[in-house]
Amino acid sequence: MSEIPSLIIDLALILVVAALMTLIFKKLKQPLVLGYIVAGFLTGPHMPYTANVLNVEGIKTWAEIGVIFLLFALGLEFSPKKIMKVGGTAIVAACTIIFCMILLGVGVGLCFGWSKMDCLFLGGMIAMSSTTIIYKAFDDLKLRNKYFAGLVLSILILEDILAVVLMVMLSTVAVSNNVEGTNLLMSILKLAFFLILWFVVGIFMIPSILKYCHKLMNDETLLILSLALCLSMVVIASQAGFSAALGAFIMGSILSETIEAEKIEKLVEPVKNLFGTVFFVSVGMIVDPSMIVQYAAPILAITLAVVLGQTMFGTFGVLLSGQPLKTSIRCGFSLGQIGEFAFIIASLGISLKVMDGFLYPIVVAVSVITTFITPYMIKASEPVSNWIDNKIPDSWNRFLVGYSSGFAPVNKESMWRKLITALLRIIIIYSIVTVAIILISIHFVNPFLLHYIPGFWGRLLSVSFTVILISPFLRAIMMKKNHSIEFMSLWNDNSYNHGLLVSTIFFRIMLAALFVVYIISHYFRARIGLSIGIALVALIIMSLSRPLKRRSILIERIFVRNFRRRDIRDEYLGRKKPAYAENLLTRDLHLTHFVLPNESLWAGKTLQELCISKKYGVYIVSIIRGNCRINIPGGSERLFPNDRMQIIGTDEELKRLEEDINNRVCVFDESMLSKGEMILRQFVIDTESVFVDKSIKESGIRDKYRCLIAGLDRKGESIVLVNANERLQKDDTVWVVGEHDDVYRLIQSEQ
After folding, report:
1. Which residue blocks in 286-406 are alpha helix, DSSP H?
2. pTM score, whole prediction
3. For residues 253 and 199, is the Cβ–Cβ distance under 8 A?
4. 359: which strand partners?
5. Listed range (145-154, 209-218, 535-544) with the worst mean pLDDT
């Protein structure tokens, strides 16, 4: 028998131990992550009393794959639209917490005399709270529906996003071993460039590919394609100088905008769970008990820094965003722990060889302690917030109340703000795409063309090819928003606006011209005046070209359609309220969903028979039935069980309708069991039978007696499929099916 590779033996060992630990920690109602870490400790090299992993390097490789799939799954749960939905409170609070906690972590590290990189990575590790632990704690304490809990979860969403950005920044600093502002700024700009480019190209291409391949894909092919896209982006990100985790997160966030996102998330979950388990077990393998004893003082200090720092800075951040004091305190008390990203950032520092190994077991110990403290901190938040609210001076209280009540987002933007925001978005996105095309052309297309067509004609072909590729984007930079509502309103509003509006057009034309001039100057040593002249002629042709205008509009429509495809699908299926629902609030109206219960007495009746609009004063906008949607249903439309109705009305009207929907149901009665029982019986047609020589249709067995003829025995032969025109004859044995009372009523009519 061939020998089993050591990696398989190791995998079997860690999965068996991890499975046992998950059962134990599930019984103890503790986070499974801690169980995985304990499993790693038991199978690691620092535990002499149990079986140990043989191939540590192989497990590290599997752990790196685990980080990739953990970030890929996180990206699938994250949507760029979530940043818009979390609101100003989450943005202000998350940024405040992360910045202050990084400074606090650096300060604690410096107090113990640790190196600059150790301090920086320590700050990154303690900056984010644990989404998993807090989510579970809210569920256990039944606080998910509380207002402060919603704010906390919004903050955690943004912290997860910023954690990925922080990992990239730490990687850049670690590689360059420099924290100068110029290098850091260039790294951030490079990151922003690639993030926007990958996201725009991904949203433009990937949803379209999935749409065209939809009929060819089952669960297996969709899983393989998703993992292939994930790992491809990992390779691209690595080649561009970023971490593999960032590439996985980006691809996950791109796929989160497709209509297959939920399905992909379910398919990827087992893969994520498997490799994620290996990663967290590998974290536990590094834990050295002797090192924990040795660094007991730093563990205690960092634990206090995390609990007190997250509580204070969390409270301050939420308070700074304009929330009331009591809400801010409850949010701050909920954030007093570190989560899974601490381990990922620690493994990043270890892999880059810029962080000392002693920090790993310290962070694990701090994570364990703060995890156990979390539920008690959340429970204590309410009495502490009440106590502080009663003890603070009245002048402070009045100031805080005034600050929180006066902090409201401005909903109505000025025309100038709308126009400038739209122009900046257009300029940034299309400029980044243009730069990417130019770089690809210079490094790949140009060498290929010059290899086969050297000299002047090859360079001319390269310039022409590149300009043609970027022409739709240059036209969009120059022409978009020149005839928009905002532009025309400002133009007609005041003659003083004309100069500023013309300057926006001039600036965009100059920017587009610079791209063309750069391409010409790169391939030809032409004078600057000649290059500008050629560029302006090319731009005039672009502006006047109808086919180019159609192509530019088509590209934008494809992107917008792909970006909104999931939202459109969710609105169609009633999973998301349509955009017009918010406008109804100004008229004191609401759009609400009602599901018709299975036992509803309204089932099978038409809207005209029910008179819902007339009786309750509401309007039925749509009826959603499975994957079908009936908009503006007519009076002849019938309702069926599990129909979802989108209804517009006031709070009072909708409440009255909801009560009637819930009350008008068929109440179960024991007598219904015997009455509704279906039985099978037989009877023989004799000479005096009222059914003899009558067809089944004429007999009225179905219409009058509500019974069904299941079969017919005639002269020793059995007729199963009985025709309605079949005439009943003497000595026929008729088998009938029906309710108990109806069948015996039929049989008695024969006697």
Report:
1. 289-294, 296-320, 325-334, 340-351, 359-391, 394-406
2. 0.76
3. yes
4. none
5. 145-154
Q: What is the mean pLDDT of residues 309-318?
A: 90
Sheet holding 733-739, edge to edge: 678-684, 733-739, 708-714, 717-719
For the stretch 247-261, what's the b/e string if a residue is b when 16 or more beta carbons lie within 10 angstroms of its beta carbon? Answer: bbbbbbbbbbbbbbb
- In angstroms, rounded to a whole number, what is the distance separating the alpha carbons of residues 174 and 348? 10
DSSP category for residue 691: T
Q: How many CB atoms lie within 10 A of CB 356?
A: 15
Those residues whose C-beta lies under 8 Å from the C-beta of residue 262, and which sit 6 or more positions away, are: none
What are the beta bridge partners of residue 644?
A: 595, 624
Strand stretches in 310-438, DSSP E: none
User: What is the CB neighbour count within 10 angstroms for residue 308?
Assistant: 12
8 Å CB contact between 102 and 283? no
Enumerate the H helices of 443-496 as residue ranges: 446-452, 456-479, 485-493
349 close to 170: Cβ distance less than 8 angstroms: yes
The answer for 681, left when phi > 0, alpha when psi is -120 to 50, beta otherwise, is beta
**pLDDT (tens digit per residue) in 209-235:** 888 888 888 889 999 999 999 999 999
Which of 112, 90, 97, 159 lies closest to 309, judged by CA?
Answer: 97
Tokens of 425: 């978005």
Which of 312, 352, 327, 374 shows the shortest CA–CA distance to 103? 312
Main-chain dihedrals φ then ψ at residue 704, nearest 5 degrees? -85, -45
Is the CB of residue 612 less than 8 Å from the CB of residue 667? Answer: no
Tokens of 201: 């190209």
Q: Are 102 and 343 in contact (CB under 8 A)?
A: no
In tens, the pLDDT along 613-649 reads 888 888 888 888 887 888 888 888 888 888 888 888 8
> Residue 22: pLDDT above 60?
yes
Q: What is the Cα–Cα distance from 458 to 462, expressed in whole angstroms?
A: 6
Q: Which string of DSSP letters, residue by residue, matches 598-650?
A: TTBTTTT-BHHHHTHHHHH--EEEEEEETTEEEES--TTPBP-TT-EEEEEE-
Non-local (6+) Cβ contacts of 552 within 8 A are 472, 473, 475, 476, 479
Interatomic CA distance for residues 271 and 265, integer angstroms: 10
- What digits encode the pLDDT tens for the residues 377-422? 888 888 888 888 787 877 777 776 666 655 444 333 478 888 888 8
Find out whether 313 and 96 touch, Cβ atoms under 8 Å: yes
DSSP states of 94-147: HHHHHHHHHHHHHHHHHHTT--HHHHHHHHHHTSS--HHHHHHHHHHTT-TTSH
Report how far apart, in Å, the C-alpha atoms of 431 and of each of 198, 204, 428, 474 are: 14, 16, 5, 8
SS3 per-residue string spanning 266-278: HHHHHHHHHHHHH
User: What is the sign of the dihedral through the CA atoms of 576, 578, 582 and 585?
Assistant: negative
DSSP classification of residue 588:
T
3-class secondary structure per residue, 59-83: HHHHHHHHHHHHHHHHHHHCCHHHH
Which pLDDT belongs to residue 430?
92
Q: What's the confidence (pLDDT) of residue 406?
A: 52
What was the pLDDT predicted at 434? 92
Cα gap 555→472, rounded to integer Å? 8
β-partners of residue 606 are 638
Measuring CA to CA, which residue among 507, 519, 509 is closest to residue 435? 519
- Please enumerate, as own/partner, the contacts of 577-584 that have beta carbons within 8 Å and a separation of 24 or more: 584/648
Q: Are 7 and 250 in contact (CB under 8 A)?
A: no
Length of the chain: 751
Cα-flanking dihedrals φ and ψ of residue 636, to 5°? -85, -5
Question: How many other CB atoms are there within 10 angstroms of residue 652's CB atom?
Answer: 10
Contact (Cβ atoms closer than 8 angstroms) between residue 693 and residue 727 = yes
